[in-house]
Amino acid sequence: MKSETKELLQAVRDGTVSVDDALLKLKTQPFEDIGFAKVDLHRKIRQGVGEVVYGAGKTAEQIEAIVRKLRGNEQGAILITRLSPDKAASLRATVPSPFTYHETARLAVVGEPPPPDGIGKIAVVTGGTSDLPVAEEAALTAETLGNEVVRIYDVGVAGLHRLLAHSSEIMRASVIIAIAGMEGALASVVGGLSDCPVIAVPTSVGYGASFHGLSALLSMLNSCASGVSVVNIDNGFGAGYLASMINHMEAKNGGNQA
């Protein structure tokens, strides 16, 4: 993934940015302390993606202040995760536009997402309709980070023919996010059908013995399909972010260049 630093150095090489201007940009304070938060202004330089705001536990006023600092630092689209509808309604009137709130995912985007520039498509696959909040968090995160996403919902192993009807989409994907609760078997089945990395997301969907997603988590960790990794329970954001990183991988040249 091209980082902001790499783009800045290329601009210096091409003569579109002076050395002094580049030095000034790199010397800018890497974070800003606003009392209740230290806003990370250099995260995009380090990681290729700017800071994401976790909305739960913060007031609407705190979120607004963080978003304004990030926008003032010329960060592009800003993700706000785990955002309640009442906070979203308050922020809609105060933060810079455009502001888009997705209630199912409890996620908001401030600014315009970039066009897709990943190496392929990310498929988001769910066991059931009850997994949609986590699935949409994953899908919207990936889209906001510049990926084309294919949604394949309600194709759990209780009706395997539903999943097999999407075999071509699964086999063409560059990364797959498999989301399921109950016993979490979907990830193993998808892993056995595909030749790309599979990111398994256990959800807290299920009856008592599912232990709020722990049963699915343990099943996914014990998957016999190679190439399956697992994120935390209900962590759609983490899955979407990781899938985007994989879908933007660049070869890194080592050694000395002539």
Strand runs, count: 11
The structure class reads alpha/beta
Tally of helical segments: 11
Distance between the termini: 24 Å
Largest sheet: 5 strands, parallel
Q: Provide the succession of SSEs.
A: HHEEHEHEHEEEHEHHEHEHEH
Helix content: 25-40%
Please indicate the count of domains: 2
Indicate the CATH class of the largest domain.
Alpha Beta
User: What radius of gyration results from the CA coordinates?
Assistant: 20 Å
- The overall average pLDDT, rounded, is 89
Structure commentary:
With 258 residues, this protein is an alpha/beta fold. The chain has two domains: 29-110, no CATH class; 121-247, 3-Layer(aba) Sandwich (Rossmann fold). Helices cover 37% and strands 17% of the residues. It contains eleven helices and eleven strands. The strands form three sheets. Strands 8-7-9-10-11 form a five-stranded parallel β-sheet. A four-stranded mixed β-sheet has the order 3-4-6-5, with helices on both faces. Strand 10, helix 10 and strand 11 (228-230) form a beta-alpha-beta unit. Helix 4 packs across helix 5 (85-92) and helix 6 packs parallel to helix 11. The chain is globular and about 60 Å long.
